[in-house]
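Example 460.
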Amino acid sequence: MQTPLNILILAAGLGTRMKSNKAKVLHQAAGKALVEHVTDTALRLTTPDRITVVIGHQADRVRDLLSARGVRFALQSEQKGTGHAVLCCEGAVPEHTGRVVILYGDVPLLTLATLEKLIRLQAEAAVSATALTTHLDNPTGYGRIIRNAAGDIAAVVEEKAANAEQRAVREINAGIYCFDAALLWKHLHDIRTNNPAGEYYLTDMVEILSGNGHRVLPLHVDDPSELLGINTKLELADVDRILRARKARQLMLDGVTIERPETVTIDEDVRIAADSVIEPFTRILGKTVIGAECRVGAYSIIESSTLEDDVQVNPFSIVATSYVSTGARIGPYARLRLENHVEAGVHIGNFVELKKTRIGKGAKAQHLAYLGDSTIGENVNIGAGTITCNYDGKKKHQTKIGSNSFVGSNSTLVAPVTVGEGSYVAAGSVVTDTVPSDALALGRSRQIIKEGWAKKRREE
Ligand code: UD1
Ligand code: MG
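Predicted structure in complex with magnesium ion:
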């Protein structure tokens, strides 16, 4: 089937009821802007050059957000209605043949399966258009579906223009359509603004098409939540919850164990391999990738990071923008703050913070340390309380610790500084100069013993 499919995503509106300075489609649910969800669904149906996003409010921000996906944009500088938004795409779409699917930037729950059904119905019935409908207990605010005797859609009547009888109709227009492209572009200019809002209503296409002897078929969606459009922050929270529940469910079906799934927050683009265990109240965000047989402990946050297989992140830890290799053990209460690379089998224990640090195979920093801007070799032992002094008040400096060396507890390493391979730093040292390989560095005052001092004091 070589019929080209173009998809138009209407995303120019502000969304006044969000009570926000940010355009509605930029608000996030499940870690992605609403318009990103819709665009990503569209990308599963057609190629990027056949997706046109109508932008208006905060056009630059919407364009910046989506441009890497390679889609087209049509600017609607003044929002004169959904029909006008489609008119703005007339010159932007690559061809006026095949099919055109219209999506809204603020309806992110719509599934690929439903859209495929809508397109299939239009193709198989060979009708001018198909539209998604559903029944709502409270249809207020939506366009009502008026069917003819054959069950086709004869008209969509907007709330403002509806009479009492029409308002009582509970079948509503979702605003999602599949049009025969030639008929859409031919009749689009017939839309007038003779309605209470003075707008170009795309919904008028239904009457225009049927007036010209063409059929428009409804596709009824049984689960109305799929068609939820977002108008308020309250609805945003509902959609966020639904998206995350869907994500958790899919992961579980793919073999991931999630304990108390209703408590976890997992972004849509996260990938987790089978047999990993996700404990309650975790947040796994961004484009995080987690391998097989990992464990993410309760209350941990993993953000935009990669965990290879068999990584254990114990409770209350944070791993952000970091790479953690196989067999590593992190936490509890560890913080991998920014751009760290933890190699295989490393142990990072409680109250250890890493920043821009690479730590080699089998190395251990088990308790109470700050390791920043540092490169640490294999099998190094970092004692409790070790601090890299990476900042001199103006600039950041590097610390290098060679493989198989031992940094005693409570040492401060004043960067820039290098500790050679196989060397020892005595506990409590302040290291300011290079430590040669295989050496012992003592950077502390000698211990003094005053015999009998304590006993004497007690007797005083
Ligand atoms: C629309 C439908 C209504 C349907 C409802 C479903 C029309 C006339 N009405 O009404 O039948 O029940 O959706 O949610 O189409 N947009 C633009 N440019 C514009 C106007 C809107 O890009 O000039 C975008 C908005 O950003 C939004 C979408 O189109 O993403 C829908 O616009 P909205 O104003 O919410 O339409 P409704 O009044 O909800
Ligand atoms: Mg709306």
